[in-house]
Amino acid sequence: METTHRVFVGDARDLSGIEDDTVELVVTSPPYPMIEMWDDLFTDLDPAVGDALESGDGRRAFEAMHAQLDRVWDELERVLVDGAIACINVGDATRSIDDSFRVYPNHARVLEAFESRGFDPLPDVLWRKPTNSAAKFMGSGTLPPNAYVTLEHEYVLIFRKGGEKRDFEPKADRRYEAAYFWEERNQWFSDVWTDVRGELQVLEDDELRDRSAAYPFEIPYRLICMYSAYGDTVLDPFWGTGTTSLAAMCAGRNSVGYELESEFLEVFEDRVAAAPDLSRSVGRARLERHREFVDRRRKEEKEFGYEADHYETPVVTKMERGLQFREVAGIDRLDDDESTGYLAEHVPLTLE
């Protein structure tokens, strides 16, 4: 099996390099409005943002920033197939402007934007993103009533384009081989993720690190496994350091990304080189966790109804039997005039 991975250096408000109805899944984390590190970016996109901030009008700045994201959501509506899923990782913002402290509910504004474009909201996920501080409050410390809750979570908002689920050919191998284990389903489809930590930034360039807000590899990897099948195409319009593309490569899906900063593509070269080892370790870790689950379940004297087709292990449900992990066996460059590209060859997971 082969997958392709393309990255365009360009503005996500114009995804002209992607044809209509060609993407099955979006997994992305946009710049968060009203987070100070993104002020300059939004002001470059629309000077009215800077004017609103300078005049102390936080509400107007908030809406002007989201108006720029709305143009990206318009493009997603165009490129996604009917029944496709969009997963948007976003956090709310707390900020004092003109001596007034408040929360700016980014998740609510994004939810409104997608619903107004005909997307159906699906149950979302909260994931804890612990701060480095031991303090769990802001404001007046232990004196009521002027302390504020510290935001330590972000949202993964999940939407389906249109009202119908995607259709697959009967007993499609690419779907059944992409199944997840029963216990993974129970963990992944919980509405609160407490086992995912924030991404440690390892960029050597201080300026690049300041412009990067990478989320943990585990988040796009899970979402890709949850909401796509082998061979599907995953889009990240806010590509950054390429975490979504790396996760798609490890999961045996195609990917496409858009990124304004060409320097991030150079950083991705090292990450691509590590994809074979990473994909192998991720697959083996999932299999090892399943075997640990089997041991625990047997100690509880609970039975298994089926045997996996490709691994010497029992599984709980019939749908798990055909599950088969893939690893990256080789990577070639596929550059053209419009994009940087990679061709990844996938083989069944090696166990030794």
UniProtKB/TrEMBL annotation:
Top-level taxonomic group: Archaea
A GO biological process held by the record: methylation
Reaction(s) catalysed (UniProt annotation): a 2'-deoxycytidine in DNA + S-adenosyl-L-methionine = an N(4)-methyl-2'-deoxycytidine in DNA + S-adenosyl-L-homocysteine + H(+)
Gene Ontology terms, MF aspect: DNA binding; N-methyltransferase activity; site-specific DNA-methyltransferase (cytosine-N4-specific) activity
The keyword Transferase belongs to this UniProt entry's keyword annotation: yes
Record domain DNA methylase N-4/N-6: where: 23-269
InterPro entries: DNA_methylase_N4/N6, MeTrfase_CN4_CS, RM_Methyltransferase, SAM-dependent_MTases_sf
Enzyme Commission numbers on file: 2.1.1.113
UniProt keyword S-adenosyl-L-methionine present: yes
A Pfam family that the UniProt record links to this protein: N6_N4_Mtase
Keywords in alphabetical order: DNA-binding, Methyltransferase, Restriction system, S-adenosyl-L-methionine, Transferase
Record family assignment: Belongs to the N(4)/N(6)-methyltransferase family. N(4) subfamily.
Protein name: Type II methyltransferase
Source species taxonomy: Archaea, Methanobacteriati, Methanobacteriota, Stenosarchaea group, Halobacteria
